[in-house]
Write a structure and sequence with these properties.
The protein contains 6 helices and 10 strands. By secondary structure, the protein is an alpha+beta fold. It folds into 2 domains: about 50 residues; about 130 residues, Beta Barrel (Elongation Factor Tu (Ef-tu), domain 3), CATH 2.40.30.30. The strands form 3 sheets. The chain has a 6-stranded antiparallel β-sheet with strand order 5-10-7-8-9-6. Strands 1-2 form a two-stranded parallel ribbon. A two-stranded antiparallel ribbon has the order 3-4.
Length: about 210
């Protein structure tokens, strides 16, 4: 779709927008044929307001989706939160797993990554938004479980603190707050279980400190 058609057919006719805002380097339409100057002119001709929003920046340069993706892939979700204005989250439907977490004393809700960006593999302090709008703290592993080595693709396995409800088939949003450690292989399940307990304790401390504004 050409930039002209997008403005007229989508923004004006279909969405009936009164005002449009975009960043200073916005480009759209077939082969990115429309830019900020074109959008400002055409929206004005169609009676729509227009605002070009200046880029936010710090000493490292302007905020951008590329930079935020890099922060997540390098294991810094808290810095991505600063630039997004909210925690980055993974949203998906809980699927049945092998119940290995339950056997270890830490039942998990298993969510495939799907088309989400895969952040750095490892363990995270998280909050989970449940159906109905309730939010629970927890600890999550993102990766391929190298200790078990079951050949599955990367996924999110989240243990919700002080929760024993049935989540199978429900859609959850898992917000990443801080990476606690990278993914690693353990000598056996007993060593893995001990580490998960430490991870859970550390995640509680991180989330409690964040809640207290420390």
């Amino acid at each position: 779709m050409t930039a002209e058609r997008f403005v007229e057919d989508v923004l004006h006719d279909a969405l009936c927008l009164r005002h449009v805002a975009c960043g200073p380097d916005f480009a759209f339409g077939y082969r990115r044929g429309g830019d900020v100057t074109f959008l400002a002119e055409r929206t004005g001709e169609l009676g729509m307001g227009f605002t070009s929003v200046p880029a936010l920046a710090d000493a490292a340069g302007p905020y951008s989706s590329t930079r935020i993706r890099r922060l997540l892939q390098e294991g810094y979700p808290e810095r991505a939160t600063e630039e997004l204005g909210r925690p980055w989250f993974i949203r998906g439907q809980v699927q049945h797993g092998d119940k290995r977490g339950r056997l270890l004393g830490f039942p998990t809700a298993n969510i495939p990554l799907g088309r989400h960006l895969e952040p750095a593999r490892g363990v995270y302090a998280v909050t989970v938004r449940l159906p109905g709008g309730y939010t629970r703290p927890g600890v999550a592993n993102i990766g391929r479980r190298p200790t078990i080595n079951d050949g599955q693709e990367s996924r999110v396995e989240v243990n919700l603190f002080d929760f024993d409800g049935d989540l199978y088939g429900q859609t959850l949003s898992v917000a990443l707050h801080k990476m606690l450690r990278p993914e690693q292989r353990f000598a056996g399940l007993d060593e893995l279980k001990a580490q998960i307990a430490q991870d859970a304790q550390q995640a509680r401390m991180v989330l409690n400190a964040e809640l207290a504004g420390i």
